[in-house]
Amino acid sequence: MWSEWKRLFQERASRPLPPIPETIDLPPRWRAPVARSLARFQIGEGGEGRIANEIRRVQLASIDDDYRDALRLFVREEGRHARILGTMVRALGGELCRETWTERLFVRGRRLAGVRLKLLVLLAAEVVGIGFYGQLAGALDEGPLRDALLQITGDEEDHLRFHVDFFQRSIRGSRGRRALFTAVWLGVASLACGLVVLDHRQTLAVTGIGPRDAARDYRDRILAVLRATLATEAPLTSARGRPAAKAKDCDREPGEAAQVIPRRRLRRRAA
Ligand SMILES: [Fe+2]
Ligand SMILES: [Fe+2]
Prior knowledge:
Layout: H1 3-11, H2 28-45, H3 49-57, H4 65-91, H5 101-112, H6 115-139, H7 144-171, H8 175-199, H9 201-206, H10 211-230, H11 243-250
Bound molecules: fe (ii) ion (2 copies).
């Protein structure tokens, strides 16, 4: 039942990394906060390996071996994102970080939890990533940084659908589980997105995205995930519902991710 997700992740596992030049041209005021933000996201992208090991031992009606393989490939894809973001940070003259307080919070939250809550935290991380990378890409001029961010955002949108597919199957037919998902999702996702807006307020301010618009965008995304997960029939949230897009996505060149173009118009770069 998870073979299409496994195939999707397998097909794009061998993509080359998007080209990032040794130095990236950005307005001087943007460089330090954007590099700091990307360095903080880079930590989160590389830290999800434990869940793939844990899921090997877990028996749930909604998963099978294909799911376990797909999750392992998903974790590897997040590691690829970490490598891309690391290159971006260096090209902006920034430094990678070892640990951040938001990442510590995410990791502690995940470790306290059972596997379902860990997956829900990962789902929240996808919303966080899609919102931030997408908005930052929307604020940038065309170029390799924007293209690479759009490619990552496209991947994150598939990750989000993958996790939503899991929760749809897990809560189907149970009013109690649907209510529990609603309560926990709204709490965890709101906290995660709120922390990101707070932690990255300088980047949001300097790029003109603005913390209020970012928070509104996150609110809309959190509610959209809730609606999609609770929907009894939601073909858009499954790999099954997008066979035509699948092949295209696997061949997708940086910048071709039309579905992930942020809602915000491209902004003029402030000098
Ligand atoms: Fe990622
Ligand atoms: Fe992701």
